[in-house]
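Researcher: Go.
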Amino acid sequence: MALINSFVSWLMKKRMCQIELFMRYPHDVQAEWLRKLLNTSRNTEWGRRFDFKSIFTPEQFRERIPINDYESLKGSIERLRQGEQNILWPSEIKWFARSSGTTNDKSKFIPVSQEALEECHFKGGKDLLSIYCNNHPDTKLFDGKAIAMGGSHHIIEVNNESYYQGDLSAILIQNLPSWVEFLRTPNLSIALMDEWESKIEMMAAETIHHDVTNISGVPSWTLLLFKHVLEITGNKHLLEVWPNFELFIHGGVNFAPYREQFRQILPSDKINYLETYNASEGFFGIQDRDKADDMLLMLDYGIYYEFIPLDQIDCENPRAYSLAEIELYTNYAMLITTNAGLWRYMIGDTIQFTSNSPYRIKITGRTKNFINAFGEELIIDNAEKALAIACERCHAILNEYTAGPVYLEGKQKGAHEWLIEFEKPPEDLAFFASILDTALKSLNSDYEAKRYHGMLLKEPMIRIMPTHTFYHWMKSKGKLGGQHKVPRLSNDRRYIDEILKSGFQV
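Model: Structure:
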């Protein structure tokens, strides 16, 4: 294993030269990818409809191709799922990554081409290891085993042809080269199980017998595995089970609310944490510096990027900006054009650029995941920074939460109601609410204005929810698993009312 560790580490470091190339020439790399995507797809149904062969500039691309979301592409995607090909992308589409649904559907099914697998998702996985090995030349990562908190997939038959749909993580695990099996645990039959409660139990039972050095997954689901491992071993922390553990690769949700729990379960300053921005639609970002809170935007994965300022998102014809036109610390909705046929697709995430040399980003929220019932424009980034401040001041540890508006009624003023499940609750809930309120005011001038003298918004209303409330609620909706996340903010009361009326909090 030491020989494998040395060879793989050397191989990964070679990629750093290519990463440094797109860091130096970002606009040239992006322009070249736009040309490649258009030229490759010129004879598809979409390529003929929009005459891709006559598009030569980013300006023509913006004028010719409409901005899309899942609803506008759904008809084409459904035809792909029924076996038609050469609609959005020329190569055969056999895999569909299931993602959380829209207002009309429980799930979205994102097409995944072979090019997207190899040039985007797998390349991203190799690059995060390359970056890690470059930053940690003495790593022993490959001396032991890796755990991937993957989901499940199933086969559907259409006209005697097999098509596959499921969680992106399961699609990636299923398509990994066979030699990777020597470096990971548990075996595929467990890793791809779709019943999460049994899966966590079996993963814990198998992985405790291996020398695990790293794990990748969504923090909330990873914590479930960690806690189950400690339950069945009787150990106080994970380093008693896996003494050579050194890296947690995370993404999907903000890690800040979970950081203290991980510190307690992995009590060592030598544990490294690496954030990635990997979605069903593509692999977008990797944390390239230790202890940074931003990620390098990966520009050579077969994706062309555009950005819409968040304050223009509801305009009839919003202006999309190229990478060269962005401004730092402005909230943008991200548009992607990919090597799986997503054309000017609004992924739904909002980001800010923290640097333009090279281009680094932070995820700030969702285009539809905010509270703006009173003009306060509260986004997830505000909420999670404020919660972190309140938890630190009150020595509390947060597990899960959701928040939404309390509407004006008669002479009653509006408010925000927070349902919070704590790992360690604050001793003084009123003080916690006050700190949270003050922090939100300092982070968001619109919220501060609406809270001025309590004229429109009164102080936050906080309900402490019993342990496992959110787990049972997600389970009741059939949404256990890494690709499903508790909705953090909502501009209406549907989630809050559903949880409070469900009885899961009892």
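Model: The chain has a mean pLDDT of 89.
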